[in-house]
């Protein structure tokens, strides 16, 4: 019998397929430890916990006590590697979390995106591995394939002095080869939950490979602990030694992480540099009110002005795979080079798209939320929300792809008359007003005929390449998988929050809604006049 993508571990939980969104973590859900896959506590570990207040002294990425990497208990080779990589001083999360990891404690680290969390767990793991080299020494679980490959690159860079052997286990790749690689016992395995679960379940020999594993890392822990990975995590945890160290790192906190923290109480070191859902100060956040029908026109105009704006590269976030594919075809017709990253593509195609963007071969990346977490690309100066995300937390992750590590950046959201409520929610969550900017409408709409023509060509190409049929089949398979896991009823759209801040209400009040309607009518009139002129 042919396996489904999910059965093969191919579904890495992005939730960006046509017609679907991410499964929202249920508020008030039972904690993970009550579901049968608790993170066991080593019997010999010393108890310690860091309170949230302790980590809130300084939010610029550095700690108030100026420690060096030498002060953190790292070996000379690790300190030297950090210097060679340009890491002169440890960042705040590294100062706080590396010592307790080296002391053998469980660690929960919560800090903003781009704060240096990867090195906070990678460096102490590599230090311990160098002392006792064997495989599999550590298992790192991350929610997306792209993050898995990025983590592998970062581990290789930080562990260049220890001849590190790494295996990446994700969907979309040859499972037989992955199984063979695991049996060879690499030092480090970086995996998405779906694929490693299938390999452990279907290959008894592979479970034995993890019998001595010392570290389990959950990167982007808020997402990994999402309900859609529940069954996979249960099985994975059962295959690992109970006396392992558990390291969880996340940019945001969730009810699941809070309940996990309460469960461990003083048995887990908790570092939380977190004051709600914040965006970094160096990020400029703007919105443009536009009529929905000409959204593609405005997008193309903005992209065509990147060089004039001094922007090196941009990520355009789109909510559905269909629109991502359509826009990539449209830009191709318009001779605008861009790479596209979404879950319909094969793993080889996804890696190639990411490589083209990272290397600078193309300056524009069109992506669904598969690219919204963890990806660290220094040259990203601009994030465009082609679609305003349905969930405010996703906005934070998206815009976190720019203005990283103290650098500046711009986040620009294209807001239509249907998005006002979503903008309210985002502003209430981040406790900040988004700057509304006036755009030269006549200049943008000068591209309308050209863009509309390219859009029509793109849609015809989608019919020819069978995209719609593929989308229907994937949606059918996704619904089947959710039904089998008992998650179909839990995957309903959340209720709209009514607890908006007063500041958020003032930004997009009734007056601006009326202005939006007027602007829409003006655009319709403009389009109609153009059509009349063409007929004449």
From TrEMBL:
It comes from the Eukaryota. The keyword Cytoplasm does not apply. Residues 98-271 form the Helicase ATP-binding domain. Residues 1-33, 47-59 have a biased composition (Basic and acidic residues). One of its GO terms (cellular component) is cytosol. A motif (Q motif) lies at residues 67-95. CDD domains: DEADc_DDX49, SF2_C_DEAD. Residues 1-67, 483-505 are annotated as: Disordered. PROSITE patterns: DEAD_ATP_HELICASE, HELICASE_ATP_BIND_1, HELICASE_CTER, Q_MOTIF. Pfam families: DEAD, Helicase_C. Residues 282-445 form the Helicase C-terminal domain. Belongs to the DEAD box helicase family. This is RNA helicase 36. It comes from Phaseolus coccineus (Scarlet runner bean).
């Amino acid at each position: 019998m042919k396996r489904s993508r999910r059965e093969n571990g191919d579904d890495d939980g992005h939730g960006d397929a046509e017609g679907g969104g991410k499964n929202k973590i249920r508020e008030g859900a039972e904690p993970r430890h009550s579901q049968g896959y608790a993170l066991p506590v080593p019997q010999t570990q010393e108890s310690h916990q860091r309170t949230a207040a302790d980590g809130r002294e300084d939010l610029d990425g550095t700690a108030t006590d100026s420690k060096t990497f030498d002060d953190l208990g790292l070996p000379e080779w690790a300190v030297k590697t950090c210097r060679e990589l340009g890491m002169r001083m440890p960042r705040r999360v590294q100062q706080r979390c590396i010592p307790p990891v080296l002391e053998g404690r469980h660690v929960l680290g919560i800090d903003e995106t781009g704060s240096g969390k990867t090195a906070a767990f990678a460096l102490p793991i590599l230090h311990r591995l160098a002392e006792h080299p064997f495989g599999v020494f550590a298992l790192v679980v991350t929610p997306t394939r792209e993050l898995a490959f990025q983590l592998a690159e970062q581990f290789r860079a930080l562990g260049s002095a220890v001849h590190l052997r790494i295996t990446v286990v994700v969907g979309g790749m040859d499972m037989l080869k992955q199984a063979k690689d695991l049996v060879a016992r690499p030092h480090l395995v970086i995996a998405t939950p779906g694929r490693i679960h299938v390999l452990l379940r279907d290959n008894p020999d592979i479970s034995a490979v993890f019998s001595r594993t010392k570290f389990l890392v959950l990167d982007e822990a808020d997402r990994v602990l999402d309900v859609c990975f529940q069954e996979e995590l249960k099985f994975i945890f059962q295959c690992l030694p109970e006396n392992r160290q558990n390291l969880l790192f996340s940019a945001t906190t969730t009810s699941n992480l809070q309940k996990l923290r309460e469960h461990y109480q003083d048995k887990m070191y908790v570092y939380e540099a977190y004051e709600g859902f914040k965006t970094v100060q160096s990020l400029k956040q703007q919105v443009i009110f536009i009529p929905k029908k000409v959204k593609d026109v405005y997008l193309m105009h903005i992209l065509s002005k990147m060089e004039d704006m001094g922007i090196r590269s941009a990520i355009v976030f789109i909510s559905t795979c269909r629109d991502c594919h359509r826009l990539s075809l449209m830009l191709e017709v318009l001779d605008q080079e861009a790479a596209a990253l979404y879950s319909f593509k094969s793993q080889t195609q996804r890696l190639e798209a990411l490589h083209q963007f990272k290397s600078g071969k193309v300056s524009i990346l069109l992506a669904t939320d598969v690219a919204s977490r963890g990806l660290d690309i220094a040259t990203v100066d601009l994030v465009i929300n082609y679609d305003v995300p349905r969930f405010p937390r996703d906005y934070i992750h998206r815009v976190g792809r720019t203005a990283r590590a103290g650098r500046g950046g711009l986040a620009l959201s294209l807001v239509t008359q249907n998005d006002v409520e979503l903008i309210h929610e985002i502003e209430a969550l981040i406790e900040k007003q988004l700057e509304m900017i006036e755009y030269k409408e006549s200049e943008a709409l000068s591209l309308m005929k050209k863009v509309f023509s390219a859009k029509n060509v793109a849609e015809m190409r989608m019919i020819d390449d069978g995209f719609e049929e593929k989308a229907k089949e994937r949606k059918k398979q996704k619904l089947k998988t959710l039904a089998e896991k008992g998650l179909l009823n839990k995957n309903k759209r959340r209720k709209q929050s009514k607890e908006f801040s007063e500041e958020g209400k003032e930004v997009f009040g009734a007056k601006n809604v009326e202005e939006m309607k007027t602007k829409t009518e003006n655009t319709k009139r403009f389009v109609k006049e153009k059509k009349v002129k063409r007929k004449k």
